[in-house]
Write a structure and sequence with these properties.
Blueprint lengths: L2 E5 L2 H8 L6 E5 L14 E2 L5 E2 L5 H15 L3 E4 L5 H13 L10 E4 L7 H9 L6 H28 L10 H17 L9 E6 L2 E6 L2 E2 L2 E2 L8 H11 L5 E12 L7 H12 L3 H13 L1 E2 L5 E2 L14 H15 L32 H4 L5 H17 L4 E11 L3
Parallel strand pairs: 1-2, 1-5, 5-6
Antiparallel strand pairs: 3-4, 7-8, 9-10, 11-14, 12-13
Helix pairs in contact: 3-5, 8-12, 9-12
């Protein structure tokens, strides 16, 4: 039998083809092969908001090539990404290539995998299923809403602000939130407060002590309201003896952060690496789709990067514990499972993690660009730390008395 596997990306196709035998032909759809028309609304608002799709000019040649490949194949496997967009692309492929025709004898299967590794792909091929129409409908609803809002709002921006600007279901709501927040800032009434600190020390060691109590009254942050009040307290402290009243020592623990989701990855990459969200996702896509390592073997280094779940597979947890034990010792190994707080999270997905914890950043550095390395290093460290014990450290609190 001849199997035709269709994915979205040519890089992904190249990586996957290395894991499959000669019976498999792996081709790329180069993203979406159907979309709403650019020159008109494309939504029938009178009849249940039915979208009218067409094949864009740039995709027509590829669609024709894919139809030829379909004709030569006994089975078509749609292996697009495991999210709403990927499911929609699989559905559009089914429609455009005639794979949904009731008289066709050609078998069509849908497979998903969350990492591009030999094991994950072989496992996915063993568990095929049909297209999830609920996910397709969810993607279509988002696309239709984007078109209904953006198609009419964007021209307004071109007239009033600048050509080329776009607005849609996200931007228009974001602008509203920014405006409301700005109004809150303008309506804010500032409140003055002062703080009183003393620099104390002995034997060459100094530390800052914050005024916390005055005449048996515990002070809040806003209790010293003006300079006169602060100077009055300073006058009372003039010439005072500062005496240690009590010292409290206790052991404190700090749990590691959970593995990355899409949003936390973007936030940390912006804060620590100064990457934009677009840059982060582009680099993460490259790490997910496959990097040529030693002996020209392409392999995906991270799991799928579009996820709002903190789930981790038991296999990933077990492999990481073995790696930590072998590398750092048993005391550094502590299996952890994380729960996603969001009720709308897609729990079938995993968090963003390395596909193999033994591929340390140092081991793969030679095969990555400097930016790819920095992002992989961030993901690898966050994940391996999430499977370690809590940090333990001593904290000392000192209460110092001075007059009242």
């Amino acid at each position: 039998m001849t199997y035709l596997v269709i994915v979205e990306s040519p890089t992904k196709a190249k990586t996957i083809s290395r894991f499959l035998g000669s019976d498999f032909i792996v081709k790329s759809s180069f993203g979406h092969i159907r979309d709403l028309p650019k020159t008109k609304l494309g939504i029938d608002v009178e009849h249940d908001f039915e979208p009218h799709y067409l094949v864009p000019a740039k995709a027509k040649k590829n669609v024709a090539e894919l139809k030829k490949d379909v004709a030569k194949s006994d089975m078509v496997i749609l292996a697009t990404d495991p999210d709403r967009e990927g499911e929609a692309i699989a559905w559009h492929l089914q429609q455009a290539l005639g794979l949904d025709a009731p008289l066709t004898k050609r078998k069509v299967e849908r497979v998903v995998f969350h990492e591009i590794t030999k094991h994950a792909i072989e496992d996915a091929l063993k568990h095929p299923h049909g297209i999830d129409q609920h996910l397709v409908d969810a993607q279509q609803a988002r696309r239709v809403l984007d078109r209904l809002v953006g198609y009419k709002l964007s021209p307004f921006l071109w007239k009033k602000v600048a050509r080329g600007l776009s607005a849609g279901r996200v931007q228009s709501v974001a602008v509203r939130i920014v405006v409301e927040r700005e109004r809150e800032i303008e309506a804010f009434k500032p409140e003055e407060y002062w703080s009183v600190t003393a620099t104390l020390g002995t034997d060459g060691t100094t530390f800052e002590a914050q005024l916390a109590q005055h005449k048996d009254k515990d002070l809040d942050k806003l209790d010293v309201k003006d300079e006169a009040h602060a100077k009055k307290i300073l006058a009372e402290l003039n010439g005072a003896d500062y005496i240690v009243h009590d010292v409290e020592k206790k052991e404190m623990t700090r749990n590691p952060h959970g593995p990355f989701t899409t949003s936390t990855l973007q936030q940390d990459a912006a804060r620590k690496l100064r990457f934009s969200s677009k840059q982060t996702m582009m680099l993460a896509q490259q790490l997910y789709e496959g990097i040529d390592l030693d002996k020209n073997e392409g392999v995906g280094l991270i799991t799928y990067m579009r996820t709002d779940s903190l789930n981790l597979s038991e296999e990933a947890i077990a492999r990481t514990q073995q790696f930590l034990t072998d590398t750092y010792g048993a005391s550094y190994s502590h299996p952890r499972r994380y729960k996603t707080k969001s009720k709308s999270a897609q729990e079938a997905h995993e968090a963003v993690r390395p596909t193999d914890p033994t591929r340390t950043p140092e081991n793969v550095k030679a095969y990555l660009t400097p930016q790819q390395f920095r992002l992989y290093d961030l993901i690898w460290r966050r994940f391996t730390a999430s499977q370690m014990p809590s940090a333990v450290f001593d904290a000392t609190g000192i209460n110092v008395a001075a007059n009242e």
